[in-house]
Specification:
Elements: E1 7-8, H1 11-19, H2 22-30, E2 39-40, H3 47-51, E3 62-74, E4 81-91, H4 96-99, E5 105-112, H5 113-119, H6 121-135, E6 141-145, E7 148-152, E8 154-160, H7 163-170, H8 190-195, H9 207-218, H10 223-233, H11 257-280, H12 286-295, H13 327-341, H14 350-365, E9 370-371, H15 372-392, H16 400-403, H17 408-415, H18 424-440, H19 446-461, E10 479-481, E11 484-486, H20 489-502, E12 511-514, E13 517-519, E14 522-524, E15 530-536, E16 542-553, E17 558-564, E18 566-571, E19 576-580, E20 589-591, E21 601-603, E22 605-607, E23 610-614
Parallel strand pairs: 3-8
Antiparallel strand pairs: 1-5, 2-9, 3-4, 4-5, 6-7, 10-13, 11-12, 12-16, 13-14, 15-16, 15-21, 16-17, 17-20, 18-19, 19-23, 22-23
Helix pairs in contact: 9-10, 11-13, 11-14, 14-15, 15-17, 18-19
Length: 622
Amino acid sequence: MVDEYFYYIPLLGTLEIQLSSQKLLNVVLNGPQFRNGIVLSDFSDGSFFQSHELFGNDDTALKILLYYDDVNLCNPLTNKVHKITLLYYQLANLPIEYRSKLNSIYLLGVCKTEHIKTYGINRVFEPLVKDLKALGTDRGYPFSVFGGQVFLRGAVLAFLADTPASSLGAGFKESVGGARRKCRHCMATYETMQEYFTEEEFSLRCKDSHEEHLRKLENAPSKFLRDYYSKIFGVNQRSILQDAPFLDVCEQFPQDIMHVFLEGILAYELKYLLRYYINEKGFFTLSDLNKEIQSFSYGYSHVKDKPCIIKTTDLDRQSSSNLGQGAANMWLLAQVLPLILSKLVSTESQHWQCFSSLLELMCIAFSAHVSLETVVYLKTAIKNHLLLFKNVYPDAPIIPKQHFLVHLPSQILKFGPLIRSWCMRFEGKHAYFKELAKKIKNFKNIAFSLANKNQKIVCAEHMTVDGKGEVSPLFGNEIVLGKIKRLTREDLEATKASIARFYPVVDLTEMMVCNSITLSGTRYCPGINNLIQIGYTGDGLPEFGNLVKICYTSDQSVFFLCKIMESVRFSEELNSIEISEPSLPAGLHVSHPSDLPSHHVHHSYSSGGKKYIPFRQYIFDG
């Protein structure tokens, strides 16, 4: 019989290990990088960060992102499912490119989910709040690094999770279905969600009003009255996180666009659209659609996320299967579906306009850079989309995740681009622990086994053989080469001449070409269908280059040699850029990776005899 435990990995101790990296310590001490204020790119550009009592006055403060979720682990021998709860954290002080790495995410705690139901979520957060109190003192916490001490303050910047986990952590109703108030940001009811589509039309929650709700709940003279207040306010209990310094549960639990769009709104609205095309109009069958999706010619960076077959039951109104897709599959489906459906239906109908307006909202929501002008536009676009959805599908109710859209513009202004606070990378960490559980092969006390094994691995990753050098695994080799070939004679001279036109001071004495290269997790391959964004045209359209050659020099410099494609127009109905071969011959364009507006690899797809590059992010604000 195993006792019931929650295994906590001390936050302060783990931070001290992290700060033993000279590079990471320098990043913290140098403070955040601010942009021009017109384009938002990170947390530090948001109004919440800049007006925060700690972060707005102490550039060296540790900015902590918390993440909480439940995970199912399956014992392959017995097929028994073990549900565990994982608590992670990440430092938002890290540059954006490092926060996408899984080893930037650290385990804070783990236990069986059933124990949380027994003892409550506040018991889990108790040791964390104790550490946060020590970190949030006026003097800060003394971290022992490099033979001395450095005093640093810190606090939680944001608590990231899906809707049930966020609501549980903040003390609100986990299930929005059982609450009169269905939003942790405002006092929306089911009825008002159907009628109002801007944030100003709702009464927002704030620290003072939330405290008043808690007082009524805690001082209720009877269970009946307590249950009444709980339902009418949408509040379950006072969260112990409110005892942590500089933490407001009404402000610092942002919406996650992965769960809102990719595991919510997109599948919900696609069900109505596909039922309309298939059942009401008979334009095609579900079998026809599945054949088109499965036979679609996906680019190499898209293949791993190829959508699964959609079953008939997935289109049922009550189905919660997310069309049988994962989040990454849904994101890719949103990009290619317009190209597939445009061959089968008209793109002029209101149903199509409703779908394309949703894709536009998604592109802005998933953008890495958002201008203030775009935020203003997004507010109007959300209202117009919800009005159009109600008009096109009068029998379809506005669900809570659709209502959450009205809060996204203000969330961008407070916390920067929504993609900075999404949960996708944290969910990617789950795969690591699932694989670890398979290797451990001991499910008697799986929570302890995972915590123990993980900490041994973390310890090993932060050690060096001679006690010198960089100790953080974050700052290892950023370049992974594929097959390489050394250039000689004519090829070498021609390539050197091409590069010298754009980068004349670079040492090009020795050079190789690669059939692929991976930079900060993104794999680039030359090919007729593989493109990168190299800049913008005079008309403001993104300009793309067909990746012809990848060169790697002796000083570890990387250059992309591209044939510039012509950007013809932006197709709103397909949410894509139409491209064509250049009208005039030109030499190869050369770009260094650091000079690219975006690190993404793009692929062109044919539709109606033309080539299109579908959007996954809004790239007009770069």
